[in-house]
Amino acid sequence: TEPSTTTPESRSPSTENGYKTLTLALQCLKDFHQTMHAAFGIEHPDWSEIISDGPSLLVSAGCITELEYLQISACLAPSPTQASAADLQCAFINLLMYRFGLRGMEAACLLRADWTEPAPDCVVLMVRSNHLRRLKSPASRRQVPLLFRLTAHERSIIEQWFLVRQATPILHDKDELFPTEFGLDGLEARRGLLKKIGTVIQQVTRNDQLSPHHNRHTFANRVAELLGLSTLNLNPLDISSTASQNARLLLLGGTD
Fold first, then answer.
1. Are 57 and 22 in contact (CB under 8 A)?
2. Is the pTM of this model over 0.90?
3. Which of 80, 161, 225, 244 is least enclosed, having the fewest CB within 10 Å?
């Protein structure tokens, strides 16, 4: 792609990188992924999660620190036992993205059966297609173990949401973990939850280039730290020998 010609007067964050418009940048990115998909079968990203309705194209690299995440969680549901159903949903969905590396709509469209606890203090998420969302490829189907220690606030969010979910009658209940509007089977409402999470992320981090999808970026980098493949040091507690050995055992089947 030929870079556009700019002048100092017209130079802006959207043009100084050589692209005349963000639309062109997006199309180039989509074309690239289409080529790679045809050649190597790689999975397409969920464009709805990384494209904003605003002027920015949220595909930049970025991470959310542990402290920022905890502040975001506290903003979404300061007191889980007194929080509204919508606030609990947002806090839980954000937790699923940050602690398990799920995409936004993967988290928002989970079924209750996808949350499994095969042993005490052991959670494994089942990411698979359902009536709400089809995974983009068979490679997207996976099991994701919990690799990080949850805080008391996070455990309270989880426990309180399951209590609310169990106690609330749902018309034509389809076992959705996060039934929108308590019965309305629409994806738009779930995207609304992600938009609210994104607003809080930007407020806490004071970075308008971050989106909920950066939870997934952070998860990948923290797992890399546990496996000794990264030195970003997003959370020093991750680097302990016990945490690293546990991650290796769960992900690689051994500690060597």
1. yes
2. no
3. 244
- DSSP, residue by residue, the chain: -PPPP--TTT--TTTTTS-S-HHHHHHHHHHHHHHHHHHH-PPPP-HHHH--SSS----S-----HHHHHHHHHHH-SSGGG--HHHHHHHHHHHHHHHH---HHHHHT-BGGGEEEEETTEEEEEE---SS---SSGGG-EEEE--SPPPHHHHHHHHHHHHHHHHS--TT---BSS-GGGT---HHHHHHHHHHHHHHHHHHHT-TT--THHHHHHHHHHHHHHTT-----S-GGGGSHHHHHHHHHHHHSS--
Residues whose CB is less than 8 angstroms from the CB of residue 182 and which lie 6 or more positions away in sequence, other chains included: 85, 168, 170
> Which amino acid is present at 143?
Q
Instruction: Output phi, psi for 143, to 5 deg.
Output: -115, 130
Which residue type is seen at 250? L
